[in-house]
Q: What sequence folds into this?
């Protein structure tokens, strides 16, 4: 009754000032309870669609019909039946295989957390995140990355994308951000959507060009020095000090260090972070648990230099953390009780074996001598340069025909680069080991087939 009367008022069937039937008359006419009519009239009265006159009844309010257009159905932009293509091998996905997540251990830790942390789970958490997780992250960084950062410097957030937006809100949109070219295109979109201007600095064999940074007149540079995406280059110590020198030349310059894929280095010790050698308070460190646990967990963190802790608190301390207490306290226990380190070691061994199998299969395939493998010593991807006269568009079509999904290095440049042709990103994190031989055979067919 309420919906029908409201619709009639909005559409003008019931006009302004028109008297409605009495509750008893209306109920008798419709064969329903007077209470039902009374409740419908009461709701319409509360929302202002009708008004009452003492001892005279209910009347339709003066409602402008144009303020209540008839709801239109949303035009579908994607068919509900559409699904992601079922690729035989997706060399772009960052997903991990289901059987590699420690479900049994995570369930045990979650159960213990629910039993022991009930009071903390109900408390509101500030923008920094819960203290237990920040303490666990602080200890982990000290042991694994050689970083000495107090829990007060660590900020927890739901994904690095959210943390980037916090940085923009904190530092302000007056800054110009210099991004690596090639680089991760989504980073640019995040900064620009938050009101920052972006410029692009090319790479040389040692990483981002310092001369280019000076010419671009940027005040912030976003880099991944330990394992650049997508080239896989590792920035040497000399270039790191050059970069810190650039940041200290002028007040208000900062470096955002995205420690992408640093946990998966297969030769030698982990490369020290830029943050750990920064004496001027110019580096904001970023990392995530998406690679080491699962992308769906959506827990990332950043480490502020000591000089920025108090200004950050004054500027954004009113915000709440975007990660639930349940996940934060569970992850804190998972780390502090040693499960994370064990899981990380297991994943590192698993990915090393998978990488070795993939590279060995490539070297023993028909592509041997017709391709080059670039930067395969770290991270979960490497580059494959193909020796072919086919252009990238033709290769892409051939890959799709074989059920392979690959992205070319040229797609990560801000502007087209002819020298990036025939070079493809091989991300093997989601690729099942048992599929590797056939995946490489299909790759050979796509590249070498004459038809």
A:
């Amino acid at each position: 009754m309420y919906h029908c009367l409201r619709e009639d008022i909005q559409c003008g069937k019931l006009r302004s000032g028109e008297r409605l039937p009495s509750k008893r008359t209306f109920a008798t006419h419709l064969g329903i309870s007077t209470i039902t009519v009374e409740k419908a009239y009461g709701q319409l009265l509360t929302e202002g669609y009708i008004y009452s006159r003492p001892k005279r009844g209910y009347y339709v309010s003066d409602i402008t019909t144009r303020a209540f257009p008839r709801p239109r159905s949303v035009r579908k932009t994607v068919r509900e039946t559409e699904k992601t293509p079922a690729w035989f091998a997706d060399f772009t996905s960052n997903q991990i295989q289901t059987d590699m997540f420690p479900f049994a251990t995570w369930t045990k830790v979650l159960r213990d957390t629910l039993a022991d942390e009930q009071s903390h789970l109900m408390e509101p958490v500030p923008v920094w995140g819960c203290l237990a997780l920040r303490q666990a992250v602080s200890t982990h960084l000290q042991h694994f990355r050689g970083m000495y950062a107090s829990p007060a410097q660590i900020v927890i957030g739901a994904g690095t994308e959210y943390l980037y937006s916090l940085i923009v809100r904190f530092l302000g949109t007056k800054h110009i951000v210099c991004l690596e070219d090639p680089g991760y295109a989504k980073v640019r979109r995040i900064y620009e959507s938050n009101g920052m201007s972006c410029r692009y600095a090319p790479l040389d064999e040692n990483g981002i060009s310092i001369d280019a940074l000076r010419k671009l007149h940027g005040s912030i540079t976003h880099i991944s020095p330990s394992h650049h995406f997508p080239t896989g280059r590792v920035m040497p110590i000399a270039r790191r000090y050059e970069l810190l020198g650039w940041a200290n030349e002028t007040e208000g310059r900062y470096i955002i260090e995205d420690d992408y894929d640093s946990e998966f280095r297969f030769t030698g010790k982990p490369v020290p972070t830029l943050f750990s050698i920064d004496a001027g308070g110019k580096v904001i460190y970023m990392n995530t648990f998406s690679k080491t646990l699962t992308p769906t967990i959506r827990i990332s963190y950043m480490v502020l230099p000591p000089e920025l802790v108090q200004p950050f608190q004054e500027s954004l301390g009113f915000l709440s953390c975007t990660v639930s207490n349940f996940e934060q306290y569970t992850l804190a226990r998972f780390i502090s009780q040693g499960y994370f380190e064990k899981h990380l070691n297991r994943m590192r061994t698993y990915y090393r074996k998978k990488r070795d199998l993939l590279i060995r299969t490539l070297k023993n395939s028909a592509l041997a001598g017709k391709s080059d493998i670039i930067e395969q010593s770290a991270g979960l991807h490497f580059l494959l340069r193909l020796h072919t006269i086919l252009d990238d568009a033709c290769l892409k079509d051939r890959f799709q025909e074989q059920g392979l999904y690959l992205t070319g290095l040229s797609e990560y440049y801000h502007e087209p680069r002819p020298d990036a042709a025939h070079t493809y990103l091989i991300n093997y994190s989601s690729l099942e080991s048992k599929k590797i031989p056939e995946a490489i055979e299909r790759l050979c067919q796509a590249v070498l087939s004459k038809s």
Q: What stands out?
A: The two ends are 69 Å apart (CA to CA). The longest strand covers residues 197-204. Residues 256 and 284 are 5 Å apart (CA to CA). The mean pLDDT is 90.
